[in-house]
Amino acid sequence: MVHELRTPLTAIHGYAQLLKRSPADSTMVDRAADVILRESSRLGDLLKQLSEVAEIDSGPLHLASVRANATDVVRDVAEHVGKKGRGHEVVVDGEPG
Q1: pLDDT tens profile 64-88
Q2: Lowest-pLDDT range of 24-33, 43-52, 75-84
Q3: Distance CA 24, CA 7 (A)
Q4: Is 94 helix (H, G, I), strand (E, B) or coil?
Q5: Which domains occur in the chain, in start order?
Q6: Which of 17, 42, 43, 41 is nearest to 28 (CA)?
Q7: Angle formed by the axes of helices 2-21 and 26-57, nearest 10°
Q8: Residue 43 burial (CB count, 10 A)
Q9: How far apart are alpha carbons 97 and 94 in whole angstroms?
Q10: What share of the chain is helix, strand, coil (3-state, %, to 5)?
Q11: Contact (CB, 8 A) for 8 and 40
């Protein structure tokens, strides 16, 4: 996990240094800003995952059972995945509950 945290941090640091040292070339500034934004978002996601793992490790995990329609659950997951599917379409065939 430490390596996964260092990678975006190194990119953010390197591009910030580049911005400090280089003359204001708008193309370079845009590219550096894009990398910094993307990698800081990635770092935030990794920290969120790390926080969730720490929470799970901190004590017993309490789960409650609930009735659910499997098609509805799969449809919700497919909708969520579809938003991040990078051009892939996820289709669920089944009757809603």
Answers
A1: 899 988 888 888 888 877 666 667 7
A2: 75-84
A3: 26
A4: coil
A5: 2-61 (1.10.287), 64-97 (no CATH)
A6: 17
A7: 160
A8: 18
A9: 9
A10: 70, 0, 30
A11: yes
